User: Fold ATP-binding protein from Lactobacillus kefiranofaciens.
Amino acid sequence: MNNPFNPSFRRIPTIFLNRGQLINEVVEELNNPNSPYKVSIVYGMRGVGKTTFLTEVGRKVKQAPDWLVVNLAMGSNLMATLVDDLYMKASSDLQKTFESIRGLSFSAVGLQLSADLSKPTLSTYQGILTNMFTKLREKGIKVLITLDEAKSNTELKNFVAYYQILNREDYPVALMMTGLPENISELQNEDVMTFLLRGKRIALSALNLSQIEISYNNVFKRSGFQVTEDTLSKMALMTMGYAYGFQLLGYLVWNVAQKSKTVDQDLLDEIKLEYLVELDQNAYTKIFSSLSLQDKKFVLAMAQSSQHRVSIKKIRERLNRPSNFVANYRRRLLDDQVIKSTNYGEVAFTLPFFKEYVLQQYRFEQGLE
Ligand SMILES: Nc1ncnc2c1ncn2[C@@H]1O[C@H](COP(=O)(O)OP(=O)(O)O)[C@@H](O)[C@H]1O
Ligand SMILES: [Mg+2]
Assistant:
């Protein structure tokens, strides 16, 4: 049997854990024309499951016959892609309706521009889209536009400016984006983009540890592996609910335990190094490098504590900074989900073995000096 775990980004995993009712709630909300979810941003660090979430919402939404789902990606011409995708995703009935729009013709891959329009401008696409959305509205068809990893650039600015018009005129077009915390906070700096920030924010929390344990139990036991409850709960703890960690750990354990068909503490010890290396390379390096110098000092002060949960008081003493300064960085890191607050006045790292990673980075930097 093939390894059922898949620690790669941007693919719906075979083993998918539901985050409670969140997806169903969002899908239901989208059917309400005045829902705050009409414009929403799923945000969180790399590997928490944003793309998977967005894909799953899209998959569910498009099961209803009165919905079209169009997936856009940064780096392409958003307006042009939207025109093409609306056409491609439409039923043949609807395609005929689009073809009836005066002056428009489509080929198998989308819009065919006439020769005199070989250099279409923004307003060319706006005009075309508004015609298409008007037809869709007449037919009672709603559209969900998804945009993975939104970043502030001219392309997105133009798109958002146009989307705002659609929204103001009550076209049934919803927009759901994902974004890394640092890219979302950049949207604040652009007037047009602040419109997005007023939308609904969906912060993805950690996957549930007992759900992870149950899932590992089912997968490994069903495939004939020997594993004790104690080992299963250790595995769940090793992931700390981090979605990428869940797939990665499952994947590594599955591969290494192929011969013995036994998952025990020795095996976990054996794969731990590989687990850490992959976490570092594929996620932590990027997450850490997006932090500011002060953020890094804060997390280092946390990592240097012997405790898992660190009091803000201790961090303040170690940083030797006034309390409002420390509170500000605490807030920033909480927003970015790098840390979580445990008890009052206490914080802990969100990601598994992130403390070890931070300390290792620090040792490397010390070595250079
Ligand atoms: N709900 C989930 N259940 C199980 N695995 C998940 C879930 N969400 C994400 N994953 C896995 O976590 C990893 C990262 O997911 P992804 O959606 O690419 O994260 P992001 O877009 O936030 O960087 C992938 O390997 C994916 O299969
Ligand atoms: Mg992603």
Observations:
- The pocket of adenosine-5'-diphosphate (ligand 1) is lined by residues 6-10, 13, 15-17, 44, 46-52, 243-244, 246-247 (CB under 6 Å).
- The chain has three domains: 22-203, 209-288, 291-368.
- The domain at 22-203 is CATH 3.40.50.300 (Rossmann fold).
